[in-house]
Every structure is written in C-alpha cells, then in structure tokens.
Amino acid sequence: MSVRLSHSLILLIAVASISACSNNNSNTPVTKKVIKKHRVENQPTTIETDKKIYASLLDEWDKKDLAKAPKATVKSKPVYNKKRKPIKRVVKAKVPKQRRVVVKRIPKNRYKTPSYKAPVNNIRYASLSGDYKNNPQAHAFISKMSTKHGFDRGYLNYLLSNTQATPFLKRMAYKDAIGPRKSTKKSKPRKGRWNRYRGNFLTERTISKGVQFWRNNRIALQRAEQMYGVPQEYILGIIGVETRYGGNVGKNRAIDALAAMGFNNARRGKYFTSELEAYLLMTRKERLDPLKPMASYAGALGLSQFMPSNIERYAVDHDRSGSVNLWTPHDAIGSVANYFKKHGWKTGGTVAVPAVSKSTRYKTLKTGFKSKHSLTSLKSRGVSANQLGNITGKASLIKLNTYSGDELWLGGHNFYVITRYNHSTHYAMAVHQLADAINQRIGGRSPIRQASLDNQSKSLLSLSSGTLY
After folding, report:
1. N or C: where does the chain have the smaller number of CB atoms within 10 Å of the terminal CB?
2. Is 242 noted as a catalytic residue in this protein?
3. Catalytic pick from 233, 242, 275, 277?
4. Distance, CA of 150 to CA of 145 (rounded, Å)
C-alpha cells in the first residue's frame, strides 16, 4: 500500500513541474520572422544604364535573327561496303552565298541592248567563252565594234560566246582560205558541164514554183518592173536560182557562217569580218535578234541572198512597211530590181541570144562574160546570130560545154549586169534561161491578161508611193 502511494506522489510532482515550465514559456513574447517583399525603388537613370539595356536588347535580337537564318540542308548519300550493302552517311551541304549584282548604267548616247534579244543574266558576260574564246580575231572584232559603233562589250561577248563553229563551216572556211586550185596539167574539160549545172535549176518543179510565185506576187512584180525597168521574169529568175522562191534560204545561222568565214580564213578573213560588222549593224537598225536569222554558208541572207553590206546599199522597203525584210517576197522583189538598176541595167536591153559558127576559128577567141568582141570581128571568125535584138557594138562570146559539143551565145550588156550578182557565166545563163521558161508560162512579155487584175494594178500604180500597200 505504501509503495503505491509513493509512485503516485512521484507522478504528481512530475506533472506539476511540466505545467510550471509551460506557463513560463507562454509569458515570453514570440518574435515573428519578417518576410521582405521585392520592392523597386525609383532611381535616376544614367547613360551607362541605357547602354547596358540597349546592349542586352541587341543580344536578344541577334539570337532571334540567328534562329530565323537558313540552316544547312542535310543530304543523305548511300555508301556501299564491300558486300554492296548500303550504309547511310550524312553529308552537310554548304549554304549558297547571295551575291550582289552591280549593273552599270549605259550612257544615253550609246546603244542599249534590247531586252528581248537575250536574257539579262547572260548579256553581261565577264569574258568571251565558247568556240572563239582563244581566237585573237574575235577579240579584236569585239574591241572594234565597241569603240567604233558603241556596242556594249558584254553584249558582244554574249553573242560570240553563243556563236558556234560547226565542222561544216570550218571545212568551208578552210576551202575558201586555200582558194581555187589551179591545175598544172592542161587537160580537156569533161563534157556536159553546162548540162549538169543547168539541170540543178531548170527543172519542172522550179519553173512551176516560179509561176506560182508570180501569181502570188504579181502586183509587186509589176510595180518593180515599172519603177526600176527590170522585167519581172528576170527578178523571178534570180529568186528561183538563189533560194527556189524561199524554199531554201540557208541551213546555217548567219552569225555562225560569218564568224567562221571571218575568224578562220587567212585569205579572205578581212572581207567576211567586215560583212559580220555590217550584219550586226543591220540587226541593230532593224531590231532583229542576231542569233536567229538563217543564211548560206557564206552569210547570204533572205530570198534574194544579199550579203549584209549589200542590204545597206541596195535593199529597199518595197511594201512600205517601215522596215527592210528580205525574208518577205515584196522586199526581196524590189531589192533585186534595185540591185540591177544600180549596176547599170538598161531597160529593154537584150540579155543573150543563141549563136552559131560555121568553123572552129572561134576557139581562139576569149570567151566568158568578161569578153568583149565587136560584131564584125565575130562575123569574120564565122560566128553569127539570126536575131541580135538590140545588141550593138560589142558583145560577149559565151561558150557552154554540153554533151553534144560547144553551145554558143552572144551576151549583151544586161548579161554582164546579171553576173554582178554572181561572177559566173553559168550562173547568168541559168538565170536567163529560167526567166525565159517562166515568161513562156505566164504569157510572154505582154501585160497581165486578166482585166480585173489589170485595172487593180493600174489603180494602185496611180497612187502615191506613200499610200501603196
């Protein structure tokens, strides 16, 4: 009993001490921890702080620009091992750099290249390239055209860089540079030279095309005959022999032909270079693309096959269109007639008449379009003609080699004029005989027979030149 009381007393004393301690702690003041809030004070700004703020903004902007910058493209290329199994390998491609193009202004007094002639990016070549890159004649030609005629040097580099020296044109330039071969042996010419030459032009197809060409362009032909005094059939003869009435104006580009003959020809390179100069001047004047027109291997142009220098001298605007275009029938017709007139064509003059000989004494005489013999001297050698026409004074003795022997003709002044187009006796005789064949088909030298067409042409010819066509 006593033991239990002692334990209870001990518990009471412990509880009393704990309560006393708790009362003492409750009486002491408790200090709370003050939490300081973020507070912005109004401090005066300075220049240095502004600079720091601006620099931080610049850094942020630079980071944004870098984020928008084009990233390098990644391409995967298949790589094969020894067993031919593909292994993927990543290759980084370089980002192309953007170059700034500086375009120089062309002075007003210099020629400005039309935009339609070539792409703008290709006109301004830094240097000459292509087949004539290392050709000194080509570089000299560019300098001449630039200083003498005001052509843009970059434009000339573009043209000649796109000019091709084809194998065919190189061969023709080489043949022209060598010149005609002179045979040392005196051998007799093979018989039938004229028959073979004549067969190239006096065919049924060519004559029929000539008649059709006359039907389509008879008003222009009649007007040219009345203006220049050249018969229609001889205009038809020239266009027929040259291009088969527009069927064959050439298979080579004019600039390719003239450049090849000019830059690769030691004998006549100067002549063809001058023709290339005239060609570029003509295309600039008529607003033509120099890389487009087709020509013969020697650079002859249009239905009438004029060399470029002759276009400036003799070509006419026969259809009153405001420009000369030899690829149109009307301008080609008027230009051929004007060419003959400028070279001394005599209106109504006889071109050539057939002749006969009673002996072989004529063989000692000089023959060809350059020969000139009086009618009395020819008669003394046994050469005569049934109809001389209006050939008086001197005549040319024409000898044509046929299968059956020599064929003789007497040529008048107008026969020599035809040779100014092409310095060949065979050429002039082919034009004459083709003209005669067409003339027989269209009704002789009489005027156009249809009454309605006659009245139409007379009314047109009575008008002034400005209102024609």
Report:
1. N
2. yes
3. 242
4. 7
